[in-house]
Amino acid sequence: MEDKIIKIFDTTLRDGEQSPGASMNMEEKIQIALQLEKLGVDIIEAGFAAASPGDFEAISNIASVIENSTVCSLARALERDIKAAGESIEKAKLKRIHTFIATSPIHMEYKLKLKPDQVIKKAIEAVKYAKTFTDDVEFSCEDAGRSEMSFLKEIIHAVIDAGATTINIPDTVGYRMPREMGEMIRELDEFINHRAVISVHCHNDLGLAVANSLASIENGARQVECTINGLGERAGNAAMEEIVMTLKTRSDYFGGLDTNINTKEILASSKMVANITGIIPQPNKAIVGKNAFAHESGIHQDGVLKHQETYEIIKPEDIGLNDADTIILGKLSGRHAFADKIKSLGFDLSDEELDSSFERFKLLADKKKEIFDDDLRAIVTDEIVKVEEEYELINLQINDCMNGIPSSAISIKHKDEIITDAGIGNGTMDAIFKTIDRISNVKGELVDYRVNAVTEGKDALAKVTVKVIFDDSKPAVTGHGLNVDTMLSSARAYISALNSYLATKDMIFKNKSEGI
To answer: How far apart are the first and last CA of the chain?
Structure first.
């Protein structure tokens, strides 16, 4: 039966975070990791420990709270990378190191500037060193999709002898066609002959990541590397929800192959990742898109009402979508009804988080006629992932008259003191951000600004995501703001980024002082 289970290796927190604009702070990463565990993910690739002190700290904190999933860190085939990875996952109950080196001729010649025998030597050394930290070691042949089969077999044989227990075959640039990918995995499956688990990591440059992953499963792969909503570099990765639901829906075709995923948590996971990263799946996205289960055509509506399977091959409730919910929340709703609704949406809040979220809900209910599930998800997600607020927005007044100079007056709480200041700018938001800079005495440079309506209608919540570079300290920091008023959302997002920057700055100082 074990061979019938396809392991899900989720890399949302590592490869997914490499999507432009998808960077997350510490609390956001921990919340996503906990949701991935609730979802039933087998392996969580929590990050790249050697990349930064922040990544190291995030992986370490995730390792200390995850109980049932394996926590993994990526590492190049370098001793310093592997050492950082091993130390970052030290607290994990189940741990894995994922080390890699490029194996395609173009990568070996132009990127690594190494001969094939040198690459094999480095791979063997990397696996052996990783084994000193954990028995669970995965080795990846980067750009395997453009590698020569003879060399792949040679390096795979060497790393299995060195102790690798999982061999990953990435289509790093999304180059392979499904039939090609399947044939490659079939040949490698016969060569490996059960000495290690075969994994695949398919990119979506040609829109074939899911198709290539499924072709690999058909031909012997028993682990798939994927992300929530298909997040990832360039055009993204294989979407976890599409692979899982394909196996579930077409069990007849795949011979009963299945995963350990609790599919009823799919929608909640998708919504959380979208809210935190600010990257919303397109409406027609398979499985989790807003229109995935929507029927506007009269013919379709009539068919579904008469028999669901006429136009739906997946039951909405199988992914956690409940259209039959009869509890409508509004300004007269009490805390008990609110708590029950939040629980039904998949959130497990502390009393303090529930109280704070309920207060924000009541304020919103005074401004909106109808509260949607997505409003509630946005409120709660915004509450549970926020960092400690060194600065808190108390009041904002703006003057954006057509013939005058845009200005803002802002009151901000800092260390029990309320500071008020005003400023002008090239536009209203510029005036807001410059005033915040003056109050905090920290100079910020806005490098990205996005606003999304959480739901439909003119009174929809505005979800603002900003990326800001403070005091010329790169990389940029992400902040989120949520309010019916877009200007208030913008101010809160900028202050959120400021608080994240200050928290990260303190953490890096702490890490340096402790010798990490």
So the answer is: 43
- 70 DSSP β-pair partners: 43
What is the distance of C-alpha 119 from the center of its chain?
31
**For 185-215, what is each residue's pLDDT tens digit?**
999 999 999 999 999 999 999 999 999 999 9
Query: What Å distances lie between residue 489 and 207, 366, 461, CA to CA?
Result: 35, 17, 9
What is the distance of C-alpha 38 from the center of its chain?
A: 15
Q: How far apart are CA 88 and CA 96, in angstroms?
A: 11
Give the Cα separation of 15 and 64 in Å (integer). Answer: 21
Tokens 């600004």 locate to: 449
Q: Which two tokens stand for residue 351?
A: 């009393």
Question: What confidence tens digit (pLDDT) does each residue in 102-119 have?
Answer: 999 999 988 989 999 999
Nearest to 182 by CA among 157, 148, 217: 217
- Do 396 and 491 contact (CB within 8 A), yes or no? yes
Q: For the beta carbon of residue 241, count every other beta carbon within 10 angstroms.
A: 27
Name the token pair of 211: 């198709």
Cα-Cα-Cα-Cα torsion 48, 53, 58, 61, nearest 10 degrees, comes to: 120
The tokens of 118 are what? 């040198």
319 neighbors 263 (Cβ within 8 angstroms): yes
CB proximity list for 438: less than 8 A, separation 6 or greater: 421, 423
CA atoms of 451 and 208, how far apart (whole Å) = 30
Each residue's pLDDT tens digit, 7-61: 999 999 999 888 877 778 889 999 999 999 999 999 999 999 999 998 999 999 9
The C-alpha R_g of the chain, in whole angstroms, comes to 24
The larger pLDDT score, comparing residue 423 to residue 166, is at 166
Report DSSP letters for 432-476, one per residue.
HHHHHHHHHT--EEEEEEEEEESSSSTTPPEEEEEEEEETTEEEE
